[in-house]
């Protein structure tokens, strides 16, 4: 199978063919208003590292370490705006699920060089992607709002609380590895969330290329993150204005690469299996 750099390069080529899909990671990056505010109000220099897996739409925030006052529990949604968040968070979950459903469905269409119908993909996959969006949010919510004494999203964590948080983070890391292929399998196999999650788990425990790709992606994020963080956080205004669309293009390429990888790895994914990143274009 092609190496991770080869896959990423091909993914970036495909992203340039379907540039309108990059609007989705731009939108989702903008919805993370807490990160934008944290950068806008930060005074000083900041360098940081990130690592992660392509669990969902890859945005600029996958690569940027946002400055904060300590270790935080972050849901990706502005629940610190309670009680207003009782209304806004459900709306944001619906918007994110709809955008993600259309995005992944359209990337799947593009694997076979088909023209995509974004709205049709939203209708077809909205419910399973709403589940995929809501479950991680609900899992982190108790930590974020202080149910276990952790405190608010932007608050620091005490040493005692770290005894709770560190095991939880380890569980999330393991779950991220086991199920990072789930959204891709959902559209590749055209199945429900449970079946897609089971298929991802089966690929994960088999190891081999699944492990290699996860390591390659995590290292890619780790290498890019200090440069992305330095620019987005430390260059006033321009860092965010340029970083969000640039990160969206890179993220789209990464999602294309991952979709192609999962399709190649999974024997039940009904796609053209030829590795031909230079084949003719179709309209996007």
Defining key terms:
284 residues, mainly alpha, 10 helices, globular, disordered C terminus
Describe the structure.
With 284 residues, the protein is mainly alpha-helical. It has one domain (4-265). It is 64% helix and 0% strand. The chain is built from 10 helices and no strands. The chain has helices at 4-17, 23-31, 33-40, 85-111, 118-145, 159-179, 182-188, 193-206, 209-234, 238-265. Helix 4 packs across helix 10 and helix 9 (209-234) runs antiparallel to helix 10. The radius of gyration is 19 Å and the shape is globular. 38% of the residues are buried. Residues 69-82, 147-157 and 277-284 have low confidence and may be disordered.
Largest sheet: none
**What oligomeric state is this?**
single chain
The ordered H/E elements are: HHHHHHHHHH
Instruction: Classify the secondary structure makeup into a structural class.
Output: mainly alpha
Give the helix tally. Answer: 10
Strand content: under 5%
Please give the number of β-strands: 0
Radius of gyration: 19 Å
What is the mean pLDDT?
84
Low-pLDDT segments, ≥5 res: 69-82, 147-157, 277-284
- Form type: globular
| CA distance, first residue to last residue | 27 Å
Q: Fraction of residues in helices?
A: 55-70%
Number of domains: 1
SSE inventory with pairings:
Layout: H1 4-17, H2 23-31, H3 33-40, H4 85-111, H5 118-145, H6 159-179, H7 182-188, H8 193-206, H9 209-234, H10 238-265
Helix pairs in contact: 1-10, 2-10, 4-5, 4-10, 7-8, 9-10
């Amino acid at each position: 199978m092609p190496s991770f750099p080869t896959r990423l390069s091909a993914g970036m080529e495909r992203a340039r063919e379907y540039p309108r899909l990059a609007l989705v990671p731009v939108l989702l990056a903008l919805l993370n208003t807490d990160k934008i505010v944290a950068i806008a109000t930060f005074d000083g220099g900041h360098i940081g590292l990130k690592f992660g897996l392509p669990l969902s739409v890859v945005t600029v925030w996958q690569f940027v370490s946002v400055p904060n006052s300590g270790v935080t529990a972050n849901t990706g949604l502005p629940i610190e705006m309670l009680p207003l968040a009782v209304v806004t968070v459900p709306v944001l979950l619906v918007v994110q699920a709809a955008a993600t459903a259309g995005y992944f469905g359209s990337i799947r269409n593009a694997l076979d060089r088909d023209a995509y119908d974004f709205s049709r993909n939203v209708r077809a996959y909205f419910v399973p992607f709403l589940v995929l969006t809501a479950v991680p949010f609900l899992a982190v919510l108790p930590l974020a709002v202080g149910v276990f004494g952790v405190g608010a999203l932007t608050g620091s964590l005490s040493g005692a609380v770290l005894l709770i948080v560190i095991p939880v983070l380890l569980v999330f890391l393991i779950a991220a590895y086991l199920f990072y292929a789930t959204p891709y399998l959902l559209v590749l196999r055209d199945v429900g969330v449970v079946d897609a999650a089971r298929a991802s788990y089966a690929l994960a425990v088999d190891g081999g290329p699944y492990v290699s790709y996860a390591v390659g992606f995590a290292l890619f994020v780790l290498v890019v993150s200090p440069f992305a963080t330095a620019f987005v956080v430390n260059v006033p205004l321009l860092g965010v204005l340029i970083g969000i669309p640039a990160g969206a293009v890179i993220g789209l390429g990464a999602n294309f690469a991952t979709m192609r990888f999962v399709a190649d790895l999974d024997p039940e994914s009904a796609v053209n299996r030829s590795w031909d990143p230079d084949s003719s274009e179709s309209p996007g």
